[in-house]
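Structure (tokenized):
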């Protein structure tokens, strides 16, 4: 009931202008303004989080921290968001890597795509999506190599048949 208390102090300040009540009203207004600024900053940071941008939320909150002073709610929320950044950064890096790999796969650059995945796995070896994509590409490369060997064998047999080298064919 902050507003009621502020109104009561304002009434006292009007009735007793020479008393220290005026200073209390000024301080109470400053507290209320700071509280409103903290609430608005937390709402803006919340919007950034809903956009999946905790990096921008942390940057914004660090900039606002100087203006808002030592507000416990604000500091706790900032610490909470900062602690979630490593997970977010890992997820974002994984998604970027998978987009790059998908583009390389469309170009049938499977060995390059596998190299990209293996480098990403050095940084984040527990990323299930990266592991699955790497296994899929390894399988594709093995299949490609098997087909290539089979094609060479069939070509050699075809050459033997063309030369009528039946025992070797």
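Design, position by position:
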């Amino acid at each position: 009931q902050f507003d009621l208390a502020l109104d009561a102090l304002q009434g006292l300040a009007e009735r007793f202008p020479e008393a220290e009540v005026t200073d209390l009203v000024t301080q109470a207004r400053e507290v209320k303004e700071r509280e409103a600024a903290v609430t608005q900053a937390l709402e803006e940071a919340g919007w950034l989080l809903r956009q999946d941008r905790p990096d921008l939320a942390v940057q914004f909150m660090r900039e606002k921290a100087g203006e808002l002073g030592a507000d416990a709610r604000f500091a706790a929320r900032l610490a909470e968001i900062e602690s979630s950044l490593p997970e977010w950064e890992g997820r974002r890096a994984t998604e970027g890597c998978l987009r790059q790999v998908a583009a390389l796969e469309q170009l049938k650059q499977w060995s390059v795509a596998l190299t990209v995945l293996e480098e990403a796995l050095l940084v984040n070896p527990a990323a299930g999506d990266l592991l699955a994509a790497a296994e899929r590409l390894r399988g594709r490369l093995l299949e490609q190599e098997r087909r290539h060997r089979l094609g060479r064998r069939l070509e050699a047999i075809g050459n033997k048949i063309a030369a009528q080298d039946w025992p070797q064919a």
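Reviewer-requested clarification: The longest helix spans residues 72-106. The chain is about 85% helix and 0% strand.
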